[in-house]
Specification:
alpha+beta; 635 residues; binds adenosine-5'-diphosphate; 5 domains; Beta-Lactamase; 19 helices; 26% strand; six-stranded antiparallel sheet
Amino acid sequence: MNLLKDPLFQALFNTSIPRIILKPNAPDFTIIAVNDAHEKITGKKGIDITGQNLWDIYQPEHSAADGAQQLLEALIQGIATHQTITMPPFKYDIPSGNAEILEHRWWKLEVMPIKGAGGNPVYVMITAINITEDLKTLKKIGQAKAREHQLAAELAASEARAKHIFSIAPVAIGVLSGRELIIESANDKILKIWGKQASIVGQPLCIALPEIEGQPFLGLLEKVFSSGITYYGHEIKAKLEHEGQMKDVYLDFVYHPLADAEGNTSSIMVVATEVTGQVQSRKTIERTEEMLRLAIDSVELGTWYINAETREFIPSDRLKSFFGFDSDEEMSYDEALSQIEESYRERVSNAVERSIMNNEIFDLEFPVMDRHDEKIRWCRATGKLYAGDMEKTPHFSGTILDITGRKEDEQRKDDFISMVSHELKTPLTSLSAYIQMLVNKSITTDDDFVQHALGRANQQVKKMGNMINGFLNVSRLGSGRIYLNIIDFNLKELILEVIEEIQLVTPAHTITLSPCIDILINGDRDKIGQVITNLLSNAAKYSPRGNTIDLTCTTNGSMAIISVKDEGMGVKPQDIDKLFNRFYRVSSKHTENISGFGIGLYLSAEIIKSHHGRIWVESEKGKGSTFFFSLPIYV
Ligand code: ADP
């Protein structure tokens, strides 16, 4: 019976799986029959292809390179062994709906020999099971698995990374798990803050750090656990035991709740920074500030602050009170200036500007009028510019002191000096007149002694007269009265006159004058003469051993510059700035036997200043000094 016509075979053959029956005539394998499913999938009709060779219909180019070869081998093997051969997945592309485009398909081919009555294969049936979808699913599963692996690896890596970061983090970190606050992990930094070893990991916090009982931390952690809200602690003091010793540490910390999958807090991450140093230095600053405030209060100092950029002015209550403002009254910088006595106002505001612009020290004494009772109060203000930085703008700040008491004392002293000088001047004037008369009379006598004695007496009276005049000038200067008798004069002539006079009283010293041109000055000739006299007599007085005094007179642009150089004892750098102060004398064993009142240089400086000149000194201790002064040339 023809097997192919058998209804049972037909039923089995015509399934939805493509099948093809071949003649076992290797290597051609003539196509005997194909089922409907085969026709549907390949588009190759049974009547067109039956009787043809398998390889003429299924060109190997539609399959993977070695697919046709594998099928051939399977057919031969199946026929030889009478066994059904299942081939590994096999790619064979089939035309899609529009026949132009090939679709990729994977097939599992079963090569089944169908034996005839003689026991030998009479047909070979190839069943092509489309496993494309299965493969896709498998591929997806494979991909999912691979992804799972990758994720697991990533997780492990990120855990390792987290652990590493945790251990090297510049801040202290620890994790406390469960309500028992078991120390799950703690990096070296947190162990250091706690003063404990790594062996505490695994212990509840209250066992590992028993000393925190009674301190706020356990309560705070409990709260974070219950509320799930992060807690930030700022500069909290903790008493912790470090190697058996209790230690105060200040901490900034965060208690951060960590939630489990259900969103419940399961552990708390502690991140802490020790700020003990910071807190202590701030406390030291606060203490110092407090002490400074006390000191300022006890000496009744007023203070001020001027923002160098915006010129915002912040006076202290005491400063305001000096100007007659109550503490709750606003006082602007201009209002403060307007309370300063008119003759000083410009000087003060210029000095403030100079300090801010040129970074000069501000140190001035000036009278201020109380705006309520119009009482005059003398103030001394000292201040300087403080450089700014990233946080602060530069500011000009300082202190102000009520020196009215001292000024009144000075005034009384000046009044006294003035009165005494006047009282002394009257008898001295008549003494001088008598001596003058005697000098005139003595011309007729031959007595050398009398002549000599009268000459000396005359000199001494003159010296005393100069001293008294000096005192009178000082007291006049103290009350701001210096009288200048302004005329035009030749500076060179004046210098020569003074040298001649001084040379008479200081014969031990040689005074030289470097070549000097005629210079016209418009000023008080006597007073400038007095300055040169002061400098020359000081040069002689403070040079007990040196015997040369060099005077120069040069010009520099519009100024005449006079210098007096000696080879005397010199002045120490710390005394230089004070030499021109009233009554200032250097006290040392070299000067103790040299008489003086400390007013010569003060007067000289005031005279030069009132002529719009400058006076200064260069000196080296033990080597000598050079005093200079400058005066505007009259043109
Ligand atoms: P007096 O000479 O009366 O003390 P001055 O005002 O003239 O006062 O001088 C003030 C001080 O300056 C002196 O006491 C002295 O210490 C110092 N001084 C002045 N001139 C010289 C100088 N040429 N060399 C060294 N020191 C000097």
